[in-house]
């Protein structure tokens, strides 16, 4: 299993991951995503801008994420804990329900943090739906600090904003702690 940059030919596989995640979350009464977000236009833009990565296992699409420097306008309301000079932002991290519970999301976060460290990002930021306890626990267990919350026009409950400081020295120490 290796992460590869998403290409146009991967669009249907990515959309399959997302549609299955939506169905699964709704079955758990988590109304984080819907038919409007994330949609095929958003994913196509991720592909065109070369900001997306997919993880495949034996040819089957099992995970998807977009990472870039684009911060939502709502992020300006947050008192972030780092200077934010060079920020990497996680968008749409998703693992096909059939592959959940196998450490795939943790593998994705390690990959993202490696990308951030290798490219001298000062921190990683993201927002997570406050109604998705599994996602919140994942980020908190992985050392992301909750620094505030934002509301998006299309949701009634807040999204929590998380941040993790990234620099080569601190990152190496954190990886050692996670390995213990």
TrEMBL record:
<dbReference type="InterPro" id="IPR000182">
    <property type="entry name" value="GNAT_dom"/>
</dbReference>
<protein>
    <submittedName>
        <fullName>Acetyltransferase</fullName>
    </submittedName>
</protein>
<dbReference type="InterPro" id="IPR016181">
    <property type="entry name" value="Acyl_CoA_acyltransferase"/>
</dbReference>
<dbReference type="GO" id="GO:0016747">
    <property type="term" value="F:acyltransferase activity, transferring groups other than amino-acyl groups"/>
</dbReference>
<dbReference type="InterPro" id="IPR050680">
    <property type="entry name" value="YpeA/RimI_acetyltransf"/>
</dbReference>
<feature type="domain" description="N-acetyltransferase">
    <location>
        <begin position="1"/>
        <end position="167"/>
    </location>
</feature>
<dbReference type="Pfam" id="PF00583">
    <property type="entry name" value="Acetyltransf_1"/>
</dbReference>
<keyword id="KW-0808">Transferase</keyword>
<keyword id="KW-0012">Acyltransferase</keyword>
